[in-house]
Amino acid sequence: MSHKALIVGATGIVGQNLANRLVAEGWTVHGLARRVESLPPTVRPIAADTLDPVALRAALSDVVPTHVFFATWTRRATERENRVANSAMLRNVLEALPRPEALVHGSLVTGLKHYLGPFEAYATGQPPVTPFRESMPRLAVENFYYDQEDVLFEAAERHGFSWSVHRPHTIIGHAVGNVMNMGTTLAVYASLCRETGLPFVFPGSPTQWNSLTDVTDAGQLASQILWAATNPAGANEAFNIVNGDVFRWNWLWPQLAGWFGLEAAPYPGGPTSLEQTLAGQADTWAAMARAHGLREGVLDRLASAWHTDADLGRPIECVTDMSKSRALGFTGYRPTLTSFLDLFERLRAERYIP
Fold first, then answer.
1. Of these residues, 4, 115, 145, 352, which one is catalytic?
2. What are 76-129's pLDDT values in tens digits?
3. Would the pTM of this model clear 0.85, i.e. be above it?
4. Of 8, 26, 207, 241, which is least packed with CB atoms within 10 Å of its CB?
5. Residues with Cβ < 8 Å from 119, sequence gap 6 or more?
6. Do 38 and 130 belong to one domain?
7. How do 212-213 and 247-248 pair as beta strands?
8. 3-class DSSP assignment, residue 333
9. Helical (H) or strand (E) element with 195
10. Active site residue 333
């Protein structure tokens, strides 16, 4: 069978890594995004806005994928608005396909906010019991992830394709301009600290500093998405996806500091807003970019400090159970320190950090 993929959000941290994996496996890959200039020549670009149904239908008029991978979202002021916009994006894509009956599988990437709630009610109320398991019921709060799932389930039943939902923790991987990119944000922060003498302070909560946690390598996520899309055991299931190890930030932080030639600053005992720390550093980063010949001199195009603050500031333990997909045959594993250091190496090699 010839596999033809449509990746929605192909320029994002998930989409880029998934596209590279599918191309390496011999797939024909179409990449849909509003701006497609950064897509590699191995990916067939489709420039369209998923919230414009008419333009989207025209852009997809001759695209007949066997697999759709939805890996994007839009941020609105309230979760009610998030629900409307993000469910519409997925619905519009599925309704714009000229031959939806040709679909074999549809994949949706969401995340641990399935268990933690949306940003406006993030990790509030009764703390969830860890580790997070796919069998846990939906929270009794508005959450656009639930609406997206329902859109996918309904379309799969109507058109006869299988589906999978993937719930990563914080994703560590290469993507420039991504609005949720902790790895690159920390690389920029460390580079600024080395250049200016700022202390490399862990910005998060005492719970995150001391408790066990996990993250998701973008390549690990791509591997699970591919497995579920092509393996009967992965059909019509929702899966957690993390690296497979656990760590404490009080161990990892000095390891990251050492890669940059820094000493990790003593933990101050409470959160320190990274967004505030970086707020006045735009000119400094621009000067660094000129001095070191970096490819991107606009700090906000690399760093998403608000998201890093949200993740590292959580007052609860976050550990994710991977038993379900392991029992069904997915055995991928990625050491977390390797995830970060490989990303740092690539950012330096491609001249995004000095």
1. 145
2. 999 999 999 999 999 999 999 999 999 999 999 999 999 998 877 665 667 778
3. yes
4. 26
5. 79, 113, 310
6. yes
7. antiparallel
8. coil
9. helix 182-196
10. no
